Each structure stands twice: as C-alpha cells, then as structure tokens.
Fold these 3 entries.
Entry 1:
Amino acid sequence: MALLAVAVEADLIVSGASAPLAAKIEHHPLSGTVIDLRVTELVAWALTGTAPRFVERLQPAKRRGPSPDKPELGTADRRRLQSNLLELSEYRPRTEASVLLRRQACFPAGLAGLDAPAKLSAQASRYLVRSESWSPSWADARSYAVSRAYRGDPEPLRTFIANTHSSEDCETAALNYTAYWVGDLADREGDDGFMVRRGLRWRGARMYPHLVERLAAEHPLVDLNIHNLWLLLRSQRGLVIDDPATSALLSGRIEALADSGRVSERSRSELRSIADGLSALGIR
C-alpha cells in the first residue's frame, strides 16, 4: 500500500508518454514533478521487463489463475513509448519546465538502452566544457552524461563531474538531488530549484547504502557513485559510525575498485580519501 502512490505516478507517466505527443508539450506528465528512483525504475520496467530491486523484495500476491509478473504493453504502445522518450530527450528546452521534461525523458531512455540524445542546449553544453555555477541546465547536462554512460561512454560523465567539482552550489545540488532520488527527502518537488536550497533536512541514511551497494567496477555510473559518496561522507561524517554494516561493506570494496582500471584518476583519488577517513576511525 505504501507504494500505491508511486505506482499510480509511474502509470500516469507511462500512459502519457506512450500517447501521441500533444502540441503543448510542456503539459506532459514528465514535466509536472521531479520523479525519483522508484518512479523511474517502474517506468523502465515497462520498457525493459527488468523488475526494480524494491519490487523483487516484495512477496508475490496470491491470485486465482494466471497473472502477469511484469507490466504488459502492446507492441504499438511500447514502440510509441520508446519513440516518444527519444523525441522528448532531444527536445530543445525553452523554459525550466521543458528542461525538466527533457532530462526526465533522457534518463529512462538511457536506462532502457535506447539511443542517447545527440544534442544539448548551449547552456547545458557548457557544463561539459568548463566549470559553471548551478542553473537548471546543470541537471539537463547531468542527465545527458548519465544517459551516455548507460550507453557505454563514461567520458561525458567524468567531464561533467570534473567541471562541477569546484562549484559549491553544484556540490549542494548533487547531494540534495541524490537525497531526493533515493527517498531521504520525502516531500515531492515541482521543479529543480530545490537542488540548491540551503538547509534541507536529510541525513543520508538511505543514500549511504544506496551508493555503497553500487560501488562496482562494471556499474555504468561508478564514477558518479564514488563522487557522490565522497561528497556525502564529507557532509555527514557520522554516517560511517551510525551504519557499521554499510561501512564494513565499503571498506571491503575500496581497494579492488581503485585497482580495477575501470574508474577515473579523480575517482581513485576520492576512494583514497574515503579509505583514509575510514582508517582514521578504525574501520579497515
């Protein structure tokens, strides 16, 4: 029952995104609210057939007779959903709402292995060239780079991390957005402005295990996971003590990951910094 609202939101997005695109594209369901991990994974489930982790942990309901074990879309609806996500992910944003629309179509398209978008707005492209302070286009550039990483090209994401590293507001956005993404921030947001809002109350109790569980050399977003974990442990130092099981898991993964040859030099430096912090607290 706790997942009912999440499922309804995902259903509205799938039905809206698989319908013919309306003339007023800014009214699309993907532009109305900032979606989180659970909603995104449910939308991707309809595209890929791969169940989200949280669904796999649920006990299957007992039903009379055969019933589907995953969302079922007709062939025409599935094709339209795929083509619409691709079209929306290449949409030229004109307003903040349309930036939100574009980036939220971009991510599930990449997650489902569809063709990644080829173009970015001039403002979003700057985040892949040089350091910039935060704007709504930060999230657009991030979604583009993440989508490219899911398609096997990690370089845009590494460049994005490097060029936003020195900006305090971009670091704040990275943490606030990840906290929202995993559910450490419970309130729903209608636009991306919350990312740079100071004083948002979150601890990172969900973010910490979420990131550590995804510290695997083969994960498409491994460099982003390392960077966000490094930011988190600088911001919330007590997490290492509060969650010893996750900290032990983290300690056991650092060396192999740093030596894997699959992460950037910046990621190796951040892993060494994390290892030093754990060692100082007696966690080995």
Entry 2:
Amino acid sequence: MSADKADGMSGASELTDLFRRVPVALYRTDEEGNLLVANDALVGLLGYESMEDLISAMSLVSSVYVDPVERHRWISEMNEKGLVFDFDVELKCADGSTIWVQDTARAIRDDRGDLLYYEGALIDVTEKIEATKARQEFLATVSHELRNPIAVVVGLSHELADRYEAFDDKERHDMSEMIARQADDAAWLIEDLLVAYRDDVSRVAISPEQFDVVDAVSPILTVAPDKIDFAIQNEETSVFADPRRTRQIVRNLVNNAINHGGNEIAIRVDSLGERVRIRVCDNGQPIPDQELDDIFRAFRRGSHSNHPSSVGLGLPVARELARLMGGEITYSHEDGYSIFTLSLPGA
C-alpha cells in the first residue's frame, strides 16, 4: 500500500470519528427521505438508546416531523436555493415528547449536478421557541388586560365630562367608583409587571415597618367585585413588612381566587407562633400536584384556569414579594377549599 493511500485512509477514518464524536447532531438523507447516516448526537437529541433504535424507528425522515407539511416546505426551500438555513421545525422524540430544532442543511451533488444526498445539522432551540411564544402571548394578554380597564376609565370619564347633568347623584357615584376600581386594576397590573421584569428581583424596593395586616386587607375588600367572607381569628395581626407590598400580594391572591377559583371566597387572618397568616380560600377545584410548580412561574397557568386570557403574573409576583419580606406563600387543599397562605414575620 502506498504512503499516499494509507494517509488517505487514515484521514477518512479520522473524519468518520469526528463525525461521530462532534456534539452537534449531524445527518445525511437521500431524496426519498431515508436516513443514510447520523451521529451519536442526533441519537441523543431525539432520545433514542442507540443508532439501531433510531434507524428502525425512522422509516422516513418525515415520520419524526410533528407536522409532515413542514417536510414539504423544507424540500421546496432546498430545491429552490440548494440549502436550508435556520429552518425551525418541531420533531417527535422517542418518548413521545417533542422538541424544536433549527435545521441547517445543503444538497450535495456530483460532478454532473445530480443529487447525491442532503447533509445537515440540528440544534435544539426548544427554549428559544418557547420563550418567543411566551413573549408573544405575554404581549397579547397584557394588552388585553390593560385595554379593558383603560377602555372603561376613558369611556366613563367622557360620559361624566360630557353629560354630567344627565346623571343623578347615585349614578355619578357608581360611575366614579367603577372608574376608580378599573384604574386601580390597571395600576396594580403595571406594578406586577415592574416586579416580574426586574433582572434582579432582590432589588425591588421594600420598606418594612410595623403595621396591622387587617389594614392591608380591608381596602381590597371594598373594591372586590365579589362578596368575600372575612374573619380575624385572633388578635395577633401585627407584622413587620412593607404594607404596600403586602397589599399587592393579598390583592393578587384574591384576584387569583376570583379568576381561577370557586364561587365562595374567604379570607382568614390568624397567627401561628411568630408568624401572622393571611389565608385566601376558595371552593374551586384542587390544583394537580404536577402543576404546582407552574402556577408560581410567570406567564404560566394551570389547566384549571377559567380565564385563559390571564397574563399569569399574580402568583409568581406574590411569592417573590413575600420572600423579599421574609415571608412565604404556600398552597394546600383542605376540606374542599383551595388555600393560598401568606405568612409574614410577626411584629
């Protein structure tokens, strides 16, 4: 064997080894969509145990596409340009889950221009796609939630300004009360957004002082659209916390019960040891265990939600603020009631 031939074989072997070892998922497919070759990174990306499992499960490349139409779009783009660049597509994994990948590929042809195969690389972009979707949903829901109260404020304000004498005292009082309530809703949503979008939540302004939590709860009851049963179960209701932030937390817990809970809502204030507790209870369906983490993550909603347009900031913001004040928020379901408990340091 000549030295040149030996060197060529050695180089080919090194390239094969590199193909297998490189951490980026690589593949080759033919024109019909058969998988010709893949590397270990592709096997791992799609969640298979071995190359043999991957090949046996994939009759055609299109079989792992969640939407087979996307494969036709991929082929059309490839035929038109000779390459596909940053093509986002959702693929099925071995365990039935799905991931989003970014596919970059090109057509390899012989000297006569005939297609030999397609070769490409896949990068997992699931987090990027989910973040993009969350951002789009966030913009849509925030604009919806802000538009509604602002529309009420603007509409009723113009009515009072333009036709003040057409209304009697009670009507003017009712309209003013509605304007105040809707403006309050918009202001608190903006407050939640300012907390949720802080890069460093620990730097949110907190001004702790001694106060009675009943003073924080009472104003919320006066503007709540539904009747809420309120009871103080012992006299130790003084805490050391930020009264404005405490009111923000309780308001979010009450709104959560109104929007996502049952038709019976109650607030109970008591103390346990050196902590004061504010429990917001409703007779809605219990939250499944597998969803408990999600309800405390911004822009997430549990499947029990009755308001799909809700932006999903209340509970995450409430927990962050509680922790900044040395408190905590927990969830339990007892005697047919979902209970969110805010505990704060007693004064």
Entry 3:
Amino acid sequence: MDQRLKAKLQQQRYHLVGEHGGVKVCHWTKESLLRDRSCYKGKFYGVKSHNCLQMSPVVDQCNLACTYCWREPHMDTLGLKDQDPLDMLYESVRAQRRLLSGFGGNDKVNKEKFLDAQNPKHVAISLNGEPTLYRRLGEYIDECHKHGMTTMLVTNGTLPKVLERLDPLPTQLYVSIDAPNKEVFDRICRPKWNNGVWEKLEKTIDLLPSLDTRIVARHTLIKGENMFGYEKEYARLDERANPDWIEAKGYVHVGNSQNNLDITNMPYHDEIIQFSSKLAELTGLKILDDSKPSRVALIGKKKVPLPIPEIVKEFPKDLGIAPPIKHLPLL
C-alpha cells in the first residue's frame, strides 16, 4: 500500500488488516451503542447496527474515480497481495473489538449491547475501494457465513466475470448503478482505464437475474448530474437487472467529494422521494420505506428481513476484548 495513503487512512481511524484490507467503525454502529439509533438497513432489512462490521479487503484500490466518492483517493495502479480469507476475517473482528473497546467504559452504553457488538452478525463489505478486486472474495464470504454472519457486498459492478464465478454469493448483493447511460457514467464515475467499463457494467446488469441471492440496485442521486430527467433510463436498466429492491440514495457533500461537486448537488429528501415515486411508477413497484437521516428510499414489492446463517464455526478465544454471548434478535 502507498505509504502516504496508509498514513491518511490510519489518521482517519481505519484499522488496516494485512496489506490491503481495512476496518472502520460505522457512524451508525456508534449511534446504536450511544443513542440506540439504527441506520436505514435496520428499517429496511432488520440489521442491528451495533452488530455490523464495516470492512473491505481492498481499501486502497479501485478502477473508478467517482466524483461523488467521499473516501480517500485510491492508488492509480492495481495489484494485490491476497491475504488468507480466514486470517482476514479474524483480524477484522479483532480490529472491530479494539475500535469499540472505548465504548465499554461509557455509562451511556448498554453493557449487554456492548458485549453483543463484540461478535458481529453482519459484514458490510463496502468500506472503501472495490472489493471484487480481491481474488479470494468467495472464500472470505464463505468463512463469514460459517461463522453465522450475513454478508452485504457492495460493488461498482464493473467486473462481471468475478460476480459470475463468485461462490458462494453474498447474502445480499448491492450493485451501484449510478448513471443512466454511458455519457453520464463516464463523466461522474470516471473510469481510470478506457477498456469498455460501461459495457462491463451492462453485462453485470444483465447477469443479475441469474444470481441466486438478494439483489439491490443502488442509485446514488446527484442533483444536476444524474437525477431528474433520467427516470426512464434508470427504469429500463432496473427492468433488465430485475433486483429484489432498488435503493435511491442521495449524494452527501462530504469528504473527498467536496473537491469535485458542490453542496447544491445534494438533493433534499423530498426530491429523493419525488424521484423514487416516478421510478416506482415506471417499474411497477412501490416505495416501501425511506430514511430521512440516511437520505434514502427503498423501492420494491415487499420488505423481507435478512436471513442469518447458522453458526458452524466459532471465533477463537484469543481475539481479545470480550467473550462471546448470545446475540440479540433482529428487529
């Protein structure tokens, strides 16, 4: 990993795992522990925010340089030293426990909930970078499932062959379809190499109906860039993808994205609902729920809680901080 990027990530309280992986405590994990507030994944899919591990096997590399990405810029070259999947899982859980350790002495934090948070039940593979660049991703997902953890993989969808071969598939697969056509895609997603990236995303879109897992099409809405006026084009892409759900999520003017976009590019929540209503009408679906704090609406037919795998492997006792306890039920 580039040493300057490594220093920036550590300064931002990433806990680096191996050569390319990383863990960072999600804002909503902290909110859940301190104020009993859950992120939209709780409302939409029954995920307990304090039980969620936010990580990526590739925090330093991506084949896109999206204008709306609020994470740090990535390396300009691709090349990974693939870490052992089981080692990555255990080190990620160890890192999560270390990052949460300070909450144990906070009087505002429920002690049972804090102990429960030591053993994540959900892994959001979405922290930074493009996780499908990790060649042993299927093995990592398999280890998560064996340890009784759901997996939520977020990908930019530009590596369709990886998704086609991925075994097992994640519990829930998010594909970022953040542009309605190639012209907009090239402008806001900015592929680093001109090798038919939009066409590869289209291949992923057409692949999705054949994948036997829960599918979410994610549209990041940037006012003035990819939002109003493009509803019909998004609807055509969504009909090809045939996802279980569509998430229409508003761009937020934070982090590195401030170098590329203006605060006026942030849509109001009412505008997100307006866009979602039109998209739902065009796709024959409906708005199932929304979350104003997270600036997102859920479009689909019905809500279905995330299924949790049966535990067949326990975490080692030497991961530190707190012993395992019985997990709290889903919402």
